[in-house]
Amino acid sequence: MTRPTTARSYSFDPHEEVVEVSDDKLGKLRRFNLIMGGLHAVSGVLMVALSNDFALGVSTFNLNGPPGTDLAQGVTNQLFDVPLGIATSLFLFLSAVFHLLIATVGFDFYASELRHGRNRLRWVEYSLSSTLMIVLIALVTNLTDLGALIAIAFANVSMILFGWIMEMVNRPDRDTWWTPFWFGCIAGIGPWATVVAYLVVGLGQEGAEGPPGFVYGIIFTLFMFFNTFAINQWLQYRKKGRWTDYLVGERTYITLSLIAKTLLAWQIFANVLIPT
Questions:
Q1: Crossing angle of helices 146-169/213-238, nearest 10°?
Q2: At what angle do helices 23-50 and 107-115 cross, to 10 degrees?
Q3: Is the model's pTM score more than 0.70?
Q4: Domain ranges of the chain
Q5: Interval 203-215: pLDDT, tens
Q6: For burial by CB atoms within 10 Å, which of 17, 101, 138, 174 has the most?
Q7: Mean pLDDT for the stretch of residues 22-26
C-alpha cells in the first residue's frame, strides 16, 4: 500500500545549507545583535525607572442571566490591572534577551539557521513581543474584554507562526510557495480589524468622546510598521533588489523590530507614563 501524498512536501533537503554567509558577515551580524540588544535593554530600564504606576484594567462582561438576557442587566467585572510601564518594558526586555542570546550562547545555532535561509529564533521572539504589543495597543484603545484580548493574542501568534512556516517550506534558490504568507496576512488582519471596529462602534455612540488623540497616532504608526515586516518577507522571496541577499532581509527585520518597539514604548510613555 502506498502512502497518500500530502498537498505540500519538501522538494529539497531541508538540512542543506543554501545561503552563503561569510565569517565577516557573521561577525557584523553578531555586533549588530549586541548593539540592538543593548538599545532594547536601555529603553526597557528607562521605561521602568521613569514611568508612573498607571494601570489598565482587564474585564469580563456577564449577562447575569440566561442567553437572551437584556444587555442592560449585564455586569462588568474587573479581573486585574495591567501596569502599563512594566508591560511596555517587557516587550523591550524580551527583544533584548533574544538579541543577546543570539550574539552569545546561541550564535552557532543562529549562524546555522541563516545558512539554511531561516531564523526560527526570530519567530519565537516575535510571537511573544509583538503579541504583547498588539494587546497593549488594544488596551489603550479601551478594549479591555478578556475574551477579545485572548482572541487578538492568538490571531497574532498565528500570523507569526505562518511566517515561521514560510521560511521552513521555502528556500531562496527555489520557487516560492506563497500560501503560508497569504494565510499569515489574513490572520494578521484580525487584531487590527478588532481594534478599529471597536473604535468606530464606540465613536458612533451618542455622546461618545473616543480615546485621546495619541491613541490614533499609535494605531496608525504601529499598523504601518507591522505591515513592513510582511513587505520585507515579500521582498525576500520575490528577490527584489538588495533582497536577493537573504541577510539584507535579516538585518531589515532587526532594524524594523527596534523602530516599531521604540515607537510604541515612547509614544505610550510620552502620553501616559510620564510621572506626575
A1: 20
A2: 120
A3: yes
A4: 23-58+75-273
A5: 777 766 777 788 8
A6: 138
A7: 92
- Cα 120 to chain centroid, rounded: 14
Query: Which CATH architecture group holds 23-58+75-273?
Result: Up-down Bundle (1.20)
Which amino acid is located at 246 in the chain?
Answer: Y
What is the 3-state secondary structure of the chain? CCCCCCCCCCCCCCCCCCCCCCHHHHHHHHHHHHHHHHHHHHHHHHHHHHCCCCEEEEEEEECCCCCCCCHHHCEEEEEEEEEHHHHHHHHHHHHHHHHHHHHCCCHHHHHHHHHCCCCHHHHHHHHHHHHHHHHHHHHHCCCCEHHHHHHHHHHHHHHHHHHHHHHHHCCCCCCCCCHHHHHHHHHHHHHHHHHHHHHHHHHCCCCCCCCCHHHHHHHHHHHHHHHHHHHHHHHHHHCCHHHHCHHHHHHHHHHHHHHHHHHHHHHHHHHHHCCC
Question: Using one digit for the tens of pLDDT, what is the confidence trace for 225-237?
Answer: 999 999 999 999 9
